[in-house]
Amino acid sequence: MEITGDEIRKRMIEHEALDPSGLKIVGATITGQLDLSDVVAKKPLVLRDCATERPVLLNRAQFSLLDLRGLVAPSVEARGLTVDHHLRLSGARLSAGESFDAQHMRIGGSAYLDEGFRAAGSVRLSGSRVAGVLMFGGGRFESGLNLMDLQIGDGIFLDAGCEVAGGGRHAAVRLRGTRVDGQIVLREGRFSSSGVALDLRHVRVGKDLLMPFDGIDGQVQLEGLTYEGLPRDATVDEWLSLLSERTLRYSAQPWTQLASAHQTAGHERDVRRIRVAQQRDLRRRGQLSRWGRIWHLVRGATVGHGYRPGLALVWLAGVLAVSVGVVLISGAVRCSTVEQVGYALNVATPLVKVDVARCTVDAASGAGGFVLASTWLLQVLAWAFATLFVAGFTGLVRRNA
């Protein structure tokens, strides 16, 4: 069966003469240009399993339902398209360099580019609004998927075998600035790029983020990404690895979002792990001065940046052990061995005071001078570690209050 594009346009313009079910054509070859731009027809248009050698033009057109399942064409242009109910392109095959340009669409139901949909060129839906779901499950997109600044009601599904290859200098999947009231689901999807595979900057997910990492081949951008609850389908260890190794640069916000999600869930141990890993990433890739980096390293080694205050006690114990060793080995302190130990603890720590009045130091000898100098230094270190412990512990208590 053959039908011209002009005949389809004429029927849709004269839509008042159509049956309420609209125009339905199945398995036809469409000759000439199918140009439905600016056609306002509040009835369904069904062109199922049809084929055409020229681009399909739907710019600013309006339909109650648009069903293009199985369409074979070079491309579809649908900028500003309005559909009251569903847009269906399941199984469509588009071969041109710009396969599907549907920016600023308004879809009252759901949009389906799934179940065998193939696009050899770019697919752009930026700025569109979809009240229901946006489905890509089982679709194949060979030159990227531009989903920037969308507003989606129920969810975006890039799952069930969805494959998206790199979009040149851009990310394979660009979701930057998108708002989703429901879920984003990437289960069993494959996203690959020599650069950025997923751009999720400033994406807001109203419910769950289901994002396993085994299908992501490339880097990710997560600055400004927010979601409700715990991110699913990836472990805490996988998130720590992703944030520290597969993002372009250090950014505090993704770490804070992950820690906040686990804090809300009551996972205090995971919160500490996330915060410590964040500090390591900050030291490695953050914008720190030379001295800032040194101080950051000291804080990490001594109190785990406030999340492991017990480390300061370990260092304090080490200082006391060194002090005891110096006093016992020097031979410059005159008293019994037990009293020498007490003397070493007394001079080195701000926490322990014992009676060592009988102990004297042979200050005139080189060993005695070494004992005095070393114990002064050790006392400074002991005070520092004790102070760090108190500061770290009280800060941890305050965070958990």
Account of the protein in words:
By secondary structure, the chain is an alpha/beta fold. Helix content is 33%, strand content 26%. It has a 16-stranded parallel sheet that branches. Strands 4, 7, 9, 10, 13, 14, 17, 18, 21, 22, 25, 26, 29 and 32 form a 14-stranded parallel sheet that branches. Strands 1-3-6 form a three-stranded parallel sheet. The chain is rod-shaped, with a radius of gyration of 34 Å. The termini are far apart. The relative contact order is 0.05.
Which term fits the overall shape? Answer: rod-shaped
Number of helices: 8
Largest sheet: 16 strands, parallel
Strand content: 25-35%
Helical fraction equals 25-40%
Class by helix and strand content? alpha/beta
List keywords for this structure.
8 helices; 14-stranded parallel beta sheet; alpha/beta; 401 residues
Could you outline the blueprint of secondary structure elements for this entry?
Elements: E1 2-4, H1 5-13, E2 23-26, E3 29-31, E4 34-35, E5 40-48, E6 51-52, E7 56-57, E8 62-67, E9 72-73, E10 76-77, E11 82-83, E12 87-88, E13 93-94, E14 98-101, E15 106-107, E16 111-112, E17 118-119, E18 122-124, E19 129-130, E20 133-135, E21 140-141, E22 145-146, E23 151-152, E24 155-157, E25 163-165, E26 173-174, E27 179-180, E28 183-185, E29 190-199, E30 204-205, E31 209-210, E32 216-221, E33 226-227, H2 236-245, H3 252-264, H4 268-285, H5 290-303, H6 310-330, E34 333-334, H7 337-348, E35 360-361, H8 366-400
Parallel strand pairs: 1-3, 2-5, 3-6, 4-7, 5-8, 7-10, 8-11, 8-12, 9-13, 10-14, 11-15, 12-16, 13-17, 14-18, 15-19, 16-20, 17-21, 18-22, 19-23, 20-24, 21-25, 22-26, 23-27, 24-28, 25-29, 26-29, 27-30, 28-31, 29-32, 30-33
Antiparallel strand pairs: 34-35
Helix pairs in contact: 2-4, 3-4, 4-5, 6-7, 6-8
